[in-house]
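Issue 218. Parser rejects a valid record. Input:
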Amino acid sequence: MTFRTLQSALLTLIVATANWPLPTLSAAQTKTLTGAELALYNGKDRGQILLEGAKKEGQVTFYTSNTWMAGHVSEEFGKKYPFIKTQVWRSDSKELLKRLTDEMAAGRFIADVVETSPDYMALLVAANAFQEVFSPELGPYDDSVKFKGKNGYLHWTSRELYISLGFNTKIIPPAEAPKTMKDLLDPKWKGKMSIAGTTTGTQWIGAIVETFGREFLEKIASQDINVQNISGAALSQLVASGEVPLSPTIFNSNIAVAKQKGAPVEWRPIDPVIATTGTSGMVVKAPNPHAALLFLDYLHSKEGQQAVLKGGLSSARNDIGSLEQKFKKLYIEGRYPPEELEKKFNEWEGYKRRLFISKR
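Output the parser choked on:
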C-alpha cells in the first residue's frame, strides 16, 4: 500500500467515525462519590455502581444480635454475591452496642452494617453511628417501621417476631383455646398458665398495662400464673412437652419450629400481639460502603426476606408473609425513647414481682 493510499484510507476512517455516538457517563461515574453521597445516590445506574464498587471492596462486615441473620441469611447473601466475603460478628444487643461505640470512640470503623433491636438502635442513632441511606427496597415497608433522618433513612425493620398465645393441642383442643385476652380470665385456666420471667414476660406485662390498664393486669394475676425464670424459647419447649398447657408469652417462630418437628402445639395471635423487631442500618464511615448498601438492599428485598422467613422469623414487608401474620401488632420497643423505655421496663418489672411472683 502506497503512502497516498494509506492516507486516503485513514481520511475515510476519520470521516466515517466522526458521527459515532460518544459514550455517556452518569453524574456518579464522572466523579468519585463520598460514602455519604453514595449512600443517598438514586440514579438509574445505582445498582451497577454498587456491584462494581463491591467487587473492588471484596467484603462486608455485619454486626447482628440474631443467630439466624448471622448464619443462614448472611450465607444466602454470599451465594448471590460470591465475590463479597461476609464477615459476621454476633452477640447480644448490649454487647453489640458496647463494641460499636468503643470502636467509634477509638476512631476505628470496622462494621459496615448493624442489625439489632430498635431500642439499642436508637442509642446508636443518638451516638451518630449511622449513615442516612436511600434504598429501592424502602417502598414495601410502612412508615411505622422506617426511621427517617434529615435526607434519607437511618435504619428500618429487617425481621419481626411475635409474642402471643402458645398452647398444647393434646391438652387444649384449638376450638377451646382462648381467642381473646379476656378469655384468659376464665376460671378454667386458673393455675394452668405460665409466662417467661425474662424480658419477654416483662414486655407482655407492659402490653397488658398499655392496652387494658392496671386493673385488668391485676385480674390476670389472680389466675395464679406461674412465672418461669426461663426464656420464651425455653418456655415453648415446656408447652410442647405438655408441662405447661398454655402461655401468652410464646414466640410464633418457636411454635413454627416445634410444629415442623411434630410437636402438638399451636400459636394464636390474641390482641395485643407484641412485635419484637430487628432493624438494620449502614454504619457511618463504613469501610466498604458499596458492599454495605448492596447487603442492605438484599436483606430488605423480597428474596432476602424469604431467607429470613425460613428461620421462623417474620417480615414487615407488605408484599410477603402469610395471611396468618396480618394481625394488629404492638411495637412496644419503639413506642418510647430509650430513656423512657428503660423507666417503663422498671415499672413493668415491679408489677411482675408484686403481682405475679410475691403472691406465690
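Fixed in the parser; the record now loads. Residues 338-357 form the longest helix (20 residues).
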